[in-house]
Amino acid sequence: MSDNLIILIPFFPLLAAILIAILGPKLLKENSHYVTVLAFAASFVCSLMLFFSVQGQVVEEGTSFESVTTLWTWAAVDNAMIDADGHSVPFLIDVTLRSDALTSIMLCMVTFIATLVAIFGAGYMHGDRGYWRFFAYVSLFVFSMTMLVSVSNFLLLFVFWEAVGLCSYLLIGFWYHKPEASAAGKKAFLVNRVGDFGFALAIFLIWINYGTLNFHDYVVDGQVIIPGVFGQMRLGGALPYVQGGMATAICLLLMLGACGKSAQFPLHVWLPDAMEGPTPVSALIHAATMVTAGVYMVTRCTPLFHASPDAQVTVACIGGFTALLAGLIALTQHDLKRVLAYSTVSQLGYMFLALGTGSLAGIVAGMFHLFTHAFFKALLFLGSGSVMHAMGNVIDMRRFGGLRHLMPWTFRTFLVGCLALAGIFPFAGFWSKDAILASVHDRAYPGAHSHDSQDSEHDADHDADQDADDHATHSVALLSADHAGSNQADSYTNIYVWLYRSACFTAFLTAFYTFRAFFLTFYGPQVIPDESGHHAHESPPMMWIPLAILAIFAFLIGFVSELDHKFAHLLTSTPSLAFAGMHDTMQPGGFHMDIAISSSIIAVLGIALAAFLYLGHQREVEAISKLKLVAPLRALSLNKFYLDEIYTWAVVKPLEFLGIIYFWLDRWLVDGLVNLIGKVPVALGSGFRYLQTGLLPFYSLSMVVAMLILLFLGQVLWGGG
Amino acid sequence: MATQIDTILFLIPEILVVVLALWVIVGGAFAPAKPFWAALSTVALIVALVLLSGQKLVAGDNGPLIVDSLGSSFRWIALLCGIALTLTSTGSGNTHSYPERLGAILFLLVGVMIVASAGNLVMLFLGLELISIPTYMLLYAGRADKASAEASTKYFFLSILSSAFMLYGFSMLYGMTGSGTFSEMQRSLATDPSPTIAGLSLLPLSFMMILAGLAFKLAAFPFHFYAPDVYQGTSSLAAGVLAVTPKLAAVVAASRLIAVIMPSQQGPFLWQVLVVASVASMTLGNVAALWQKSTRRLLAYSSIAHSGYLLIGLAAAVAAPQGSGQAGISAAVLYIMVYAAASLGVFAVLAAVLGDNDEMDDVRLLAGLGNRAPGQAFAMAVFMFSMSGIPPLAGFWGKFSLFKSALDVAFEGTNQIWFVTLVIIAALNAAIAAGYYLRVIAMMYFQDSSSEAKTTVQMGPAVAAYLCMLATLVCAFPAPLMQQADQAAAGLVAADDTGSTAKLVQVAANRR
């Protein structure tokens, strides 16, 4: 059952993409969205069925569940490598899809948001010249994304990692006649290459160290032939994970890949520019789904990261720093979509921070935030798209304002999204942000919440017993490494303390910039730009109904998922998260009342400050901006900390200079040599031309002479020998 | 005697073509109607093909003939070439000598067919002369101007000279073995592999002379001098004949003589000569072609280069260890097939677009052909791509199997350096050749012609060109052709393990 479902889910969008690509330009035209919406909805239904089927089996089978479906063997090379023990290892790439908790959650989220975005997009893109092209790209994207989260192999993961990158590039540059759009597309593509380079190197290292790229065990007749990287044999502890410097190298390279795709410092610069694409795309790809691929990948690779505390703390630092940096930049941006883009970068930073705690609680919190964030950030983007639609594609917040009466539905749903993003009880963001803060807090102050950890210790003992029974041969190396790892990790406690403080401050920033944007857009005197053509109006139902649905989810989803730790229990059945190393010390984190209260207070303070500054007349803002102390800081934030300029001078210009040098070398040195070689046959030919005298006596004489030479040589070399 | 009747029955296709040729020449004197004679001979050639395909290859006493699949392959090729040439002939040269030219073509086809199944030296020589003599006439009759007189005179003298070399070689072979029949000569040489007289080794003497004669037919270095002058000085049709038919005969004759008669264990000299001739021919042909401004002269140099490639296969066949020479021969057979299709096609296109204006053959006349005659230009482009060996066209597979046969020899035996170097030079040559082939394509598609008027395309040659293009395109899937070539070569080499009295020449087993 789940075998078919997992195939159908990517199949529908692929079919839609092909159909639209073939029929779109001539036949479907303005009806292209029907195909896409239907396909996405069908995928979503399948995803839901898969989700419940997985959930049911998790309940039956206990802690760890996966089911893999092999479609066909893509590549098979015998004796591809000789491993350290002298065994020859085959290189085997199966096109294998897996269904487990992590995959099914991602699939539900992706297909649900995609369906709503496609409906919204049908309204938003109405009348565009590239209408069918848009839906073909989006369908291709959803195919790639669903494959990305369901493949069970690093190589295929990389393939679809690139495929979503391609779709992103195509869609950012969708209006390719706009120079900004095509430049932004190129920037996204090039910056992502840096990350992909790291990811590819990581895959090479994984192949060298593990002798396989499969996540799952390759099983023939019930016997494990090739143990997968996240297969039961390794997770159970029967085989060790690589430790030490190599583990750190693998993880850091993986993280470099994640930084590219998920827009983390220092590779975050492409995401704000990516807002040049159509807004539904910003919502789907650059807020809810593709940019979370990095988070998904790091989560999937938890066992690898677990082997390297150094890498974990790096992930946490990158995440925490990016969250703070992007939050600071978002404070002063004038462009509504850019505020949201930086907010996305910041929230992704939160997720990495949580993953970087290395605890199960942290990972669950990170994934939970990914899940809730997808809903409210898609909501916010679609809301901004609705505003943009009404304002004639103007998105600069200085040029419009006071839209709450003009666009009531957009206003209401946007408010829900803002509350969720700011983390106000009981909206979705509150639960997940709280979970992240709690996990970081636990990591920073171990033992502070003893009543929680007692429970978990009990569970842990229980699990440890089970493990001992199951896997009597628990590797000594793994244990000692864990031990060494935890000692070492303790020395990082200080770092986590600072990360916790920074995260709390970022929460304040988040609430502030969110509501700054909200007040600027919907409050104050009603201002409408000329581009809207003076008939600015609320968007059609096709656009606000998806907003309303998303708003309901942004309101409820956190609450429902948090009930009884449903989300956590399901997620931890993912093999990558339910492995022996994880059980020793960690359990899904509890709900910390004190942190919940303090973070709520922080968020309310942020909203209050935004209200104080931006509601009504903005004389306070003017006054503050003029302060000697604040002005340079404001400039720093407004100019995104000059990172683009720094990159231009540190990377782009030197490379351009190098390019000029190489161009001249190629032009004069290499081409010169090549042309010289090319001259040789021509010169030879010109020599031969003089043999062709056209005189019969010469021809016959040369034949006779050649004959005589042959006869002579024949006698000497053949007859004589 | 039953055998004589069998032999005559076996030769029915040839006899049909000879009768046809006589009819055309005699009847044409009274009714010189081009379409009729062309249609008649096309139909007759098709009938001959049908008759040929009905024949069973029965090993047995076939008199002076050899019945094997190498022979029948080349008879097939000759008849197919005949159809293409007949169609081409309708568009090239002046009208009043048309029947004579058509008759000459038909006669020389019979010559090729006889060479293909010749079982003794007399038949072989007869066949070769039956190719040469009509060619002399054909070279002159098409244009009948000063240039063609000069060209045919040159060819006549040099061809006679080469025939003399070859005949001298044949006579020495006969003197050594006391027989003119291939199988008997082979047996005799197997018992006494190096006969000498007055301190001279006779075997090298005779083989070098025969080699010189065949090299002339192939237009291989250093017997190539005639080709550029003659191609340029004659009609497109005659150039097409000259580019294909003598080479067909030379390849099949060389395969028989070298792979069959020559006793084994003869040292490396023969294949070394072939390798050197191969390298020299292809290099000279290609680099000289780079300079040419006359289309037919360019194609003459190109045909010299292709002879170099054919010699790769022959050299590999000679150098291969015992009984494994068929790979080289098979590759050469495949190569000559795809070369024949492309080459005939090229001259058919020239005849189609240039018509009677045989004195005009500047490459620049092809400018803008892509607009003026798109179908013919496309066909020409296909031939050019095929000849330069661009995959997946036929020419690529020809080169591929030649290189493979040479490399197989290189890695089986001790002659690695020679053959690896040979293949490297051959590959470099393919790159050089692309230079002038692609220039022709560029000329057709990227240069504007002086006049934008549509070119009048001659129908007969145009059809011939399309047929050749079809063959070249079909050979992008070369499996059946390769199989045929393998079979031809295998029949040659894997003769009689039953020890039968051998029509089919014995090789592998007895060569020991």
What does this protein look like?
The complex is a heterodimer of chains A (721) and B (512). Chain A has 721 residues and is mainly alpha-helical. Chain A has 28 helices and four strands. In chain A, the strands form two sheets. In chain A, strands 1-2 form a two-stranded antiparallel sheet. In chain A, a hairpin with a 2-residue loop joins strand 3 and strand 4 (223-226). In chain A, helix 3 (101-124) runs antiparallel to helix 4, helix 8 (244-261) runs parallel beside helix 13 (309-330) and helix 17 packs antiparallel against helix 20. The termini of chain A are far apart. Chain B has one domain (2-260, 267-490). In chain B, strand 1 (196-197) and strand 2 form a beta hairpin. In chain B, helix 13 (295-319) packs parallel to helix 17. Chain B has a two-stranded antiparallel ribbon with strand order 1-2. Chain B is mainly alpha-helical and 512 residues long. The A-B interface holds A 681-682, 684-686, 688-689, 691-692, 694, 696, 698-700, 702-704, 706-707, 710-711, 713-715, 717-721 and B 153-154, 157-158, 161-162, 165, 194, 196, 200-201, 203-205, 207-209, 211-212, 216, 222-223, 225-226, 228-229, 266-267, 269-270, 272-273, 283-284, 286-291, 432, 435.
Across the major sheet of chain B, the strand order is 1-2
Helicity of chain B, in percent?
A: over 70%
Overall average pLDDT of chain B: 84
Could you tell me the radius of gyration of chain B in angstroms? 22 Å
Q: Tell me the domain tally of chain B.
A: 1
Number of separate strands of chain A: 4
Oligomer: heterodimer
Which structural class fits the helix and strand makeup of chain B?
A: mainly alpha
Strand content of chain B: under 5%
Reading the helices and strands of chain B in chain order gives HHHHHHHHEEHHHHHHHHHHHH
Low-confidence stretches of chain A: 450-488
The major pleated sheet of chain A works out as: 2 strands, antiparallel
The separation of the N and C termini of chain A measures 79 Å
How do the strands line up in the largest sheet of chain A? 1-2
Distance between the termini of chain B: 35 Å
> Helical stretch count of chain A?
28
Q: What's the shape of chain B?
A: globular
